[in-house]
Amino acid sequence: MRTGVWLVGARGSVATTGIVGGLALRAGLTGPTGCVTELPDLRGPALPTFADLVFGGHDVATTPLTKRAEALAAAGVLPGRLATALAADLAAVEDDLRPAPTGGSQAERAATITADLTAFRERHRLDRVVVVNVSATEPAPAAHPGHADPDALRAALTGPDEVLPPSSLYAYAAVEAGCPYVDFTPSTGLRLPALAALAAQRGLPYAGHDGKTGETLVKSVLAPMFAMRHLAVRSWSGVNLLGGGDGATLAEPGANAAKVDSKQRVLGETLGYVPQGGTRIDYVEDLGDFKTAWDLITFAGFLGTGMRMEFTWHGCDSALAAPLVLDLARLTAAAHAAGRAGPLPELAFFFKDPIDSPTHSLSEQWQRLVDFTRELHAGGAG
Amino acid sequence: MRTGVWLVGARGSVATTGIVGGLALRAGLTGPTGCVTELPDLRGPALPTFADLVFGGHDVATTPLTKRAEALAAAGVLPGRLATALAADLAAVEDDLRPAPTGGSQAERAATITADLTAFRERHRLDRVVVVNVSATEPAPAAHPGHADPDALRAALTGPDEVLPPSSLYAYAAVEAGCPYVDFTPSTGLRLPALAALAAQRGLPYAGHDGKTGETLVKSVLAPMFAMRHLAVRSWSGVNLLGGGDGATLAEPGANAAKVDSKQRVLGETLGYVPQGGTRIDYVEDLGDFKTAWDLITFAGFLGTGMRMEFTWHGCDSALAAPLVLDLARLTAAAHAAGRAGPLPELAFFFKDPIDSPTHSLSEQWQRLVDFTRELHAGGAG
Amino acid sequence: MRTGVWLVGARGSVATTGIVGGLALRAGLTGPTGCVTELPDLRGPALPTFADLVFGGHDVATTPLTKRAEALAAAGVLPGRLATALAADLAAVEDDLRPAPTGGSQAERAATITADLTAFRERHRLDRVVVVNVSATEPAPAAHPGHADPDALRAALTGPDEVLPPSSLYAYAAVEAGCPYVDFTPSTGLRLPALAALAAQRGLPYAGHDGKTGETLVKSVLAPMFAMRHLAVRSWSGVNLLGGGDGATLAEPGANAAKVDSKQRVLGETLGYVPQGGTRIDYVEDLGDFKTAWDLITFAGFLGTGMRMEFTWHGCDSALAAPLVLDLARLTAAAHAAGRAGPLPELAFFFKDPIDSPTHSLSEQWQRLVDFTRELHAGGAG
Amino acid sequence: MRTGVWLVGARGSVATTGIVGGLALRAGLTGPTGCVTELPDLRGPALPTFADLVFGGHDVATTPLTKRAEALAAAGVLPGRLATALAADLAAVEDDLRPAPTGGSQAERAATITADLTAFRERHRLDRVVVVNVSATEPAPAAHPGHADPDALRAALTGPDEVLPPSSLYAYAAVEAGCPYVDFTPSTGLRLPALAALAAQRGLPYAGHDGKTGETLVKSVLAPMFAMRHLAVRSWSGVNLLGGGDGATLAEPGANAAKVDSKQRVLGETLGYVPQGGTRIDYVEDLGDFKTAWDLITFAGFLGTGMRMEFTWHGCDSALAAPLVLDLARLTAAAHAAGRAGPLPELAFFFKDPIDSPTHSLSEQWQRLVDFTRELHAGGAG
Ligand SMILES: NC(=O)c1ccc[n+]([C@@H]2O[C@H](COP(=O)([O-])OP(=O)(O)OC[C@H]3O[C@@H](n4cnc5c(N)ncnc54)[C@H](O)[C@@H]3O)[C@@H](O)[C@H]2O)c1
Ligand SMILES: NC(=O)c1ccc[n+]([C@@H]2O[C@H](COP(=O)([O-])OP(=O)(O)OC[C@H]3O[C@@H](n4cnc5c(N)ncnc54)[C@H](O)[C@@H]3O)[C@@H](O)[C@H]2O)c1
Ligand SMILES: NC(=O)c1ccc[n+]([C@@H]2O[C@H](COP(=O)([O-])OP(=O)(O)OC[C@H]3O[C@@H](n4cnc5c(N)ncnc54)[C@H](O)[C@@H]3O)[C@@H](O)[C@H]2O)c1
Ligand SMILES: NC(=O)c1ccc[n+]([C@@H]2O[C@H](COP(=O)([O-])OP(=O)(O)OC[C@H]3O[C@@H](n4cnc5c(N)ncnc54)[C@H](O)[C@@H]3O)[C@@H](O)[C@H]2O)c1
Ligand code: NA
Ligand code: NA
């Protein structure tokens, strides 16, 4: 099952780490640590192998992929030996990267993207191409009448308005090209009635939003712990210090708001009440691609006794995110192959703000993911 | 369903907090925070109500219960107003406390305990009495031929040897009195072939070992998180600083070894490999009944990138343990009423070192507990 | 040397804790922990004794002092037994509290304050009264021509403008009443040319600003450590979570800015460069009078190797601040008695943002304080 | 002033980092971060320059220095580019490394060491050679009559006994060769009456013990902070997790005891009382050359209110220690040049367990160091 993985933001940290890692796995230069689809409970015949994956993508930046890989190696995100060993393979992927289209109407730009996707699929004789958005987080867009339904949207796109934010324009173009779509960012992507309707019409599955890699991952096991023990969480306050490209973007207030919002949802929905406190994101350039998050939780036990827990998470965001991008591409490809269309709530395990998921508990999400892949492997998830 | 809760170590911190809390719940002076059997997923008709519970117990100490309650209030474990408001009820429980028997053969001491239990059950017209061991942790006992089967045991007990450690003598006496037994400590208790056989013969359920309240509770959700994400835990090191009566006991090397051992089991069994590092327990008198645990976890992600997490847990052990003692008494009583005999692996959720449990994952244990209580309420867990 | 301690914000947490503690020390009910003027290096004959201190003050609030003391006891800031034992003494202080004047021109309000101070001094036959501002932090005031010199100020005060922020109006009135003045808050207080000139004319000493009690105290020893070891601090980021009255005020952006500003100064001035990162203050009601601060410091050593340190400070702000208020009153009274006028940079040890201090290093400030008190005791600091 | 730096343990992590750094400074390939003798308050004409330093040493290991440098680069202790750029200079130093002598009487081994030192001094026409012990920490030696005075020692060394532990044998040989001696480890070194007498006779200065680089460095500023604020430290508990060669040695109980001991001294001597708690050292291989220390401090403030602080230090021990080794060599050489003999308590700033120092406060030690170097530069410290 030859599968294209088309990355929007293909020269970013997550994308570059994902490409290097995917190529390294194909070449047998590394093991599958961090790839959940390689765990005994999940792996199986329905998923494309690492050797089946072919990478391409769009980006507004033009830095060569090998330069980005070297920079990530210098920053301790990748082993330098991989960047060196895979130089030729990276150059090959470079040929499949395309500039983000500019100028003209949004309809014209969408057509260019669709054409890029179609050409990629044909050039490599791929069974399908999964589009994964790992570009910079956008601010929430203004409402527009064109968001309501496919016809209104199509009409509006030909006009002069910036009807869709970039993530949604890519999603639209992906659907037009018959490609499943995954949003690894908190951006809008496919979350508009017009786009959801279009994806349903075309029989395309999609998943999102916002990869769950650091503080929120920890929250998704600690909050259920407090709930299962009937302990009353009084306050939960967090601060995220991060450098890197993503950090710089998130320092921008619009994007920060979008991110913080999806982070707090976990608590309220798991506990049944919203504790005091909030989450901060601050940009500290020196931290580079490593993020430090600190959380303080105060809680009451039996007879009201006050207690506290704090944790510090010091993680490399790209090293945590990249294998999940590969997992999501494999799973979404398999779902498409199995005939699934519309949202994939079974992939909630991967997201901070999962579409249509009844729970934020990591282990309930895990159980659902295990059941889903079991069905896929048995040939029945469609 | 009038249910006796007989506490071995009835004047200790956990026991006193449990008694005060149980009386306060009966009197409507406090809410059920920390009692998992009061969560919507677990509560129901099969469990005795708080008003159904009657407390008694053994202890080697003689400090009056009201004195212990005042001391715990001064230490911030209990609200002082409860100790005051419940003075009369505590005095009533005082009448049901008995000294730990001394002198004579172990058979004679066991007979005294059995007689105390039987008299308690009759005096209060109780449907059943659950014996819960919350006395000081013992060192592991020396092997003895009497441990092998009921007949050998009975014969040995009449001789001069200290055949059984105290926890096991209480367990033996409980079984002889027809009482279900719960071990909240890491001591041996019912974990001897002779005693397990006896409990089976008498149709008595039992549960244990070692209440899971602090660092290990956190481990039981964090270790599965790393496993589910296919992250490679390289080292997990912890230190537990604690004061209080339990802290003083654990400073003693024999007991320390027993406790540390049950703490490390969670990791190896959850991850499938044992990471580097270990757990320390140190006695720091000034910390009183509050414990501070600090853990450092180093782990590798995709392509081997090294990352780290640390957490500090600052909990009041007695406030965490006491409601679980009430939960265990209620659940074990209900299991007995439903005709269950032998070990209760469905109660693994409560223990660091659960009997016969296939998993240390808190959420899998939770699911099993939910299923079990659902059956009990439906009238079918026997 | 009978000394009045007049507290602006006399019903606040810091003031109430200071009054209770001062009375308890006088009554021999507590020891001098936290009072630096009782250390062997500082104590001596020049300072008024605790028995010499008489308390009074202004506040806009009207809650009785005994109520405030009970609330602080319930919150764990004070031992309840002290609030009880000192009820009569607190009632006596209550008689010396006055409402903050309202209505009329600022000149009229200042006159009322001056009259209150004079009457207090006479009523109790005090040698002098030290005015200490411990009221809520104000936003920075708008510039006004009246701030420039005493004549312009006096003229402006009779008009309709709010020429001075409250802290400065109290400072003005204190100077008019011949009282030394200490500003324990980051508010403007005496820091206006007109007021400094007036204090000099009247021969009055003054000190400030902003008591150094938590995170900044720690910074004032850690930053010199990095400097003395020639380590390059790359980033220093902090978050302060606090409840209580002060926390609520600081949640207000104007006050927050003032406070954060004085917190960051320490780093730049000690290190000679400003590292990346910043300090946040967030209000978390559940934390009450206890504050949790977390700081992350990244630094480079030899050959550029990156390292990190983090600390969590969990302190009771009022318990840290109150004894310093007593220290400052004693020291400023002694300075006044010795004939000192104008700013007292020798008291920099106590402040986040000290007037005229060449250093933020706690130990250099300490050395200066030791020298200063030694001179006072020898009779020569004037 | 051509100065030899003779490192005992010359192939260890600290020594190798020191040599690479010294060569890199000479070549202008790096800056002096971490070298305190390059701070404005300390630098000056009395110290040998980095270009004046010539390295040599003994080791029981034989791994080539370039191999060790590469390994340290791979572990993130050094930048890889330095190991590469300095390959030729490292090979030159290699020629000045000698095996630790074995076999024969201790007198014979000492003679070999003395000969190695003398040859080194002559070969490179050095004004003097400072011997610095950075070899593995030893257990405390058994008492021996030969330790009492020079004559007894000389007599004993010719016999079959292992009279001196290795660190003291090196110290003896250094003194015999007329070399000042610095002990950067907690080993015995020159701390025996016989050796101190000999050094005095020969007019040689010496310094020690045990470089202060991590947790103890932090303690030496935090403990004075608590003392200066009259706060009562109730408990101070710490754990040190470390890998690397030093970590493996310290896992050995004898060495561990020596190290822990020197760590606890700071507290008792600074505070005037010994708080509860202790320090643990645990070996965790995965941490490599980076050490993580965690400390919990509980303390009481005014009126007994309980508070707490915790910190985590994540430092690269070799990167912290190596520049201090260069500092100590430069300062001890200058002291020797100025005619100083006997212990150098002015260098207490550098040590956990300083010889003859009246204080453990880092800033008091700093002041003394500043005064000392000022005198040296002025030509008068002798
Ligand atoms: N790393 C994680 O753990 C994690 C977790 C959840 C979500 N995410 C999200 O993943 C995204 C990528 O993160 P990153 O660290 O790789 O960021 P990055 O800044 O390194 O990469 C983003 C890339 O997107 C490109 N880009 C920006 N606008 C574009 C456009 N209109 N079209 C095409 N490309 C565009 C940029 O040029 C850049 O190369 C972010 O939105 C982040 O919030 C990351
Ligand atoms: N608190 C927790 O979170 C927690 C968690 C798991 C296990 N535990 C276990 O619970 C037990 C009780 O803890 P605690 O904090 O109440 O300790 P504690 O020291 O306050 O109380 C123990 C009591 O047992 C009594 N005792 C000792 N030997 C006895 C004997 N032979 N017969 C009868 N009584 C005896 C003592 O006199 C004391 O009153 C300990 O074994 C502890 O390890 C506690
Ligand atoms: N606690 C500390 O560690 C610390 C350290 C440095 C500075 N401070 C400063 O000390 C001050 C007091 O702190 P707190 O915790 O006691 O706060 P608080 O809110 O408990 O008390 C402030 C008091 O000031 C009174 N007040 C407000 N406006 C007034 C006015 N115009 N005239 C007279 N009274 C007025 C309030 O009614 C209140 O009683 C704050 O400004 C705080 O920033 C405190
Ligand atoms: N790194 C720090 O921050 C720090 C701080 C204080 C003290 N120290 C001390 O510095 C010493 C060196 O630390 P390291 O990390 O470099 O350790 P390391 O194990 O890397 O190096 C020690 C070296 O000493 C050599 N050695 C052992 N016995 C010897 C002998 N008898 N003669 C000659 N050489 C011998 C070993 O072969 C090894 O090369 C240790 O004693 C350590 O306790 C280090
Ligand atoms: Na921490
Ligand atoms: Na911490």
UniProtKB/TrEMBL annotation, chains A, B, C, D:
Set out the biological process GO terms recorded for this chain's protein. inositol biosynthetic process; phospholipid biosynthetic process
* Pfam families, alphabetized: Inos-1-P_synth (PF01658), NAD_binding_5 (PF07994)
Domain Myo-inositol-1-phosphate synthase GAPDH-like: start-end pairs: 214-318
In alphabetical order, the GO MF annotations are: inositol-3-phosphate synthase activity
The record's similarity note reads:
Belongs to the myo-inositol 1-phosphate synthase family.
| Name of protein | Myo-inositol-1-phosphate synthase
Native species of this protein?
Answer: Micromonospora rifamycinica
